[in-house]
């Protein structure tokens, strides 16, 4: 008999931003796949009331929580969903509480990567004031410390400070508004999607983001517009390519190895995506680790899975089976 699966997702209304409305499409598509596969499904919106969710889970009799909650005070408290499931003895998809806690704070994640010798762009803060001069007259990028889906990232996020006074003002602003300022790696952008089956992780074909006909003064970044605003230049001129997998074997090996190193460091989630920038010397830098990335039909993760030979239904079932496998292994 197939398991009972609860699709737990953000509470979204019609006035929500595009990145949040996408959650409902994802829920519908995953539920359709599970029902085709013979699973029994329920859907529930998470309103932020953890005690009410605990009561619901205890009464529901579900075997697996398919965790699609993507925002809870930004991403600051996303680890509470798998933590609750772990405490109640219910299998949960994707990242465990450790994985989500460590990756939802981008600055914490960067500090851990440095300790593990995983390359990531240098960042600036009050802690490393003695190194501020190295950032002057160089491109930097500012991004929210606890947001996903490129929220808060646009062309204005890439900037240059000419003086220490300007840099001091920028750091003060970043500290107040929970923003990271890091070196901008002016080069290529790639990502590696990872899928786990019975504890064994596999890297999907590498996706490279191509910035077609971008003007010289337009930053080549996958910002909010490029992801969500279909009418924008960035959306229409940013394309995904898997051509890198037919050449550049040394770079491919470096990207895959580094992605799996990140997977090991950050709690071994059952599916994830690691975002990279590559400089002109083909040095790779990890931008961030996305635990529980979007798996809507038009998402990058699913595109990589298709390139590997998976169907959509088989990817969804792999995620559910891995949740049950991990739960049985550790209970």
Describe the structure in your own words.
- With 331 residues, the protein is of the alpha+beta class.
- The chain folds into three domains: 4-94, Response regulator (Rossmann fold, 3-Layer(aba) Sandwich); 104-118 and 187-329, D-amino Acid Aminotransferase, Chain A, domain 1; 123-183, no CATH class.
- 38% of the residues lie in helices and 23% in strands.
- The chain has helices spanning 18-36, 50-60, 80-88, 97-104, 106-115, 164-177, 224-228, 233-237, 249-265, 300-308, 312-329, and strands at 4-10, 40-46, 64-68, 91-92, 123-124, 139-144, 158-160, 179-183, 188-197, 200-203, 207-211, 238-241, 271-278, 284-291.
- Strands 9, 10, 11, 12, 13 and 14 form a six-stranded antiparallel β-sheet that branches. A four-stranded parallel β-sheet has the order 2-1-3-4, sandwiched between helices. Strands 5-8-6-7 form a four-stranded antiparallel β-sheet, covered by helices on one side.
- A hairpin with a 5-residue loop joins strand 13 and strand 14.
- Helix 1 crosses helix 11 (312-329), helix 2 packs parallel to helix 3 (80-88) and helix 3 runs antiparallel to helix 4 (97-104).
- The longest helix has 19 residues, at 18-36.
- It is globular, with a radius of gyration of 20 Å.
- The mean pLDDT is 92.
Apparent shape: globular
What can be said about the biggest beta sheet? 6 strands, antiparallel
Q: Looking at CATH, which topology of the largest domain would you report?
A: D-amino Acid Aminotransferase, Chain A, domain 1
Beta-strand percentage range: 15-25%
Give the helix level as a range of percent. 25-40%
Query: How large is the radius of gyration?
Result: 20 Å
